[in-house]
Amino acid sequence: MSQPTIDADAVMWSASEADRADRPLLVLLHGYGSHEGDLFGLAPSLPLEPVIASLRAPLVAPWPIDGWSWFPRDGEARPDRDTINASTDAVIGWLDDLTVQPTVVGLMGFSQGGAMTMQLMRRAPDRFDYGVVMAGFVCPDQEPGDAVLAERKPPIFWGRGTLDDVIPEAAIVRTTDWLTAHSTLSGRIYEGLGHGINQQAASDVRAFIQRQL
């Protein structure tokens, strides 16, 4: 089986290559069965300073889902470590190949993309400056970068809804414990919100990213 790669032609950018120099980068990572255009719709609600790049996950979600995934869905939020790390390595490889390298790199992911956000920070703790995790979870396996994050405690925003029935309770407890130990955690639990992002969450994310800049 070949290693997954990020389709550079599918990336949605908020700025042309000529306008990316000497600017921070915010990488958007969509959820299961979605696509690069999903989170990019939040771009008008996000700060103007960063260049935004919304990536398409490298795996085709199985029928009847019409979209893409970072790793197969198992229903328990416990993805295979090798599979998710193959996708994180694909994102890191895409970053390495950028002609214009950013001054700062932030990550924002929803659901599976939120898991990817934390896994990327664990795989390359020196590469990413902050993370936004919406309705996401941390993977259960230990990573070599965990010790670095536990010492450095980078800023991470974690938002989720009280009515989210997609992420299991065990994964929420695991994520709470991990984020408390490995990040400078901020975030919010949104009353009445299911597995999604509402206007208040978008506003909170904007304020969080603005503080990091």
Automatic annotation (TrEMBL):
Name this protein carries in UniProt: Phospholipase/carboxylesterase
Record key words, sorted: Hydrolase
Family to which the UniProt record says this protein belongs: Belongs to the AB hydrolase superfamily. AB hydrolase 2 family.
Gene Ontology MF term list: hydrolase activity
Phylogenetic classification of the source organism: Bacteria, Bacillati, Actinomycetota, Actinomycetes, Micrococcales
Protein's UniProt keywords contain Hydrolase: yes
Superkingdom field: Bacteria
InterPro entries associated with the record: AB_hydrolase_fold, LYPA1-2/EST-like, PLipase/COase/thioEstase
Limits of the Phospholipase/carboxylesterase/thioesterase domain: 18-211
One Pfam family it belongs to: Abhydrolase_2
